[in-house]
User: Which sequence fits this backbone?
């Protein structure tokens, strides 16, 4: 651990521009639309940092969760404003640990700085907890990499048995709450129970909750929605009783391709024995990168791959193309020049000569009969 902290201090010192400050505190907190979680239900938690008016530039987090009752489905940057990842978010459901290391070279000062996003699932009924390991640290943007206090209030909540929530909510346009869609019009419906009143809200703001005014509609459509995660929250009551949470349905929309990137063709004696390779990376701040695909030469198709990719000189081609595909299926393509044995124009000329020669041969053969 001391080596990690030492590396963080070097990172902080190298990029710092601000002068020292006296306050020494920051707070990590979680934002979720869910008040109750059922067994088998997935829910999104966005993690934020309140710098408490103190400029910071480096974050090292190690969170522990109760692996008996919770499991992490996904941990990713999400809408994070962290611009340099030393270690992107990673997790282990066996040990119940989430870790990340990153920062912002120019520093940041914000009471709601988005750090990363997790998708979690209620594994089985019981008490669920999330705690912060004491090794977690944030460093001041003060030119010295000073470590400041990081506060975190333990999260405790109950995973209720499957089927406890009183209302069933479905969507014909976004049927899987864990999936990202490019469709930016969402239709949501719920099945009312006799004698109950319902109130609902639909927003990407975690802090928006239904009012206490009963509504009659049971099927709603929301159109022209910007990218993001939306929550249809449903409250219910019987007679003049108190309003209570009846269910939440998540809609995930992403219509924007990954960010523009430039692949790099290089060679290194330590990689692929010194043979030429291509490396590439980009980000998608809404749904995240799903995978990459590469096309090496005119006569080849796209194949899924990882970086770095060992290159072979193609028979015909002028470039190598790399596709970055996000979780919603949006694509960003980047190309780099890399001639094959034959350039495309040479291949086209050769093919034209062959076709012309074949036509002339057939014509002469018919004429000679």
Assistant:
């Amino acid at each position: 651990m001391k080596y990690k902290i030492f590396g963080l201090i070097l990172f902080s010192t190298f990029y710092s521009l601000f002068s020292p400050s006296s306050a020494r505190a920051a707070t990590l907190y979680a934002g979720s639309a869910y008040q109750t979680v059922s067994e088998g239900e997935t829910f999104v938690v966005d993690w934020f940092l309140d710098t408490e008016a103190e400029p910071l530039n480096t974050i090292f987090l190690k969170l522990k969760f109760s692996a008996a009752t919770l499991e992490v489905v996904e941990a990713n940057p999400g809408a994070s404003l962290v611009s340099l990842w030393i270690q992107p978010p990673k997790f282990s459901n066996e040990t119940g640990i989430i870790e990340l290391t990153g920062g912002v070279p120019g520093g940041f000062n914000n009471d709601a700085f988005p750090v990363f996003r997790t998708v979690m699932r209620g594994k089985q009924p019981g008490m669920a907890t999330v705690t912060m390991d004491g090794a977690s640290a944030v460093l001041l943007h003060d030119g010295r990499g000073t470590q400041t206090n990081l506060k975190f209030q333990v999260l405790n909540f109950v995973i209720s048995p499957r089927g406890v929530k009183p209302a069933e909510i479905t969507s014909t346009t976004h049927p899987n709450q864990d999936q990202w869609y490019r469709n930016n019009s969402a239709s949501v419906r719920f099945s009312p129970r006799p004698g109950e009143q319902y109130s609902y809200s639909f927003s990407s703001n975690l802090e928006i909750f239904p009012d206490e005014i009963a509504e009659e509609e049971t099927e709603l459509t929301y159109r022209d929605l910007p990218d993001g995660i939306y929550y249809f929250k449903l409250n219910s009551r019987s007679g003049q009783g108190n309003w209570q949470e009846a269910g939440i349905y998540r809609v995930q929309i992403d219509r924007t391709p990954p960010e523009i990137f430039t692949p790099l063709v290089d060679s290194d004696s330590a990689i692929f024995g010194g043979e030429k390779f291509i490396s590439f990376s980009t980000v998608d701040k809404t749904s995240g990168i799903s995978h990459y695909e590469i096309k090496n030469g005119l006569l080849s198709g796209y194949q899924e791959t990882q970086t770095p990719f060992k290159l072979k000189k193609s028979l015909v081609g002028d470039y190598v193309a790399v596709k970055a595909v996000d979780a919603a299926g949006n694509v960003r393509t980047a190309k780099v020049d890399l001639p094959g044995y034959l350039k495309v124009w040479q291949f086209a000329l050769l093919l034209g000569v062959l076709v012309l020669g074949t036509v002339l041969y057939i014509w002469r053969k018919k004429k000679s009969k």
User: Anything to note?
Assistant: The chain has two helices and 25 strands. The CA atoms of residues 147 and 320 lie 45 Å apart.
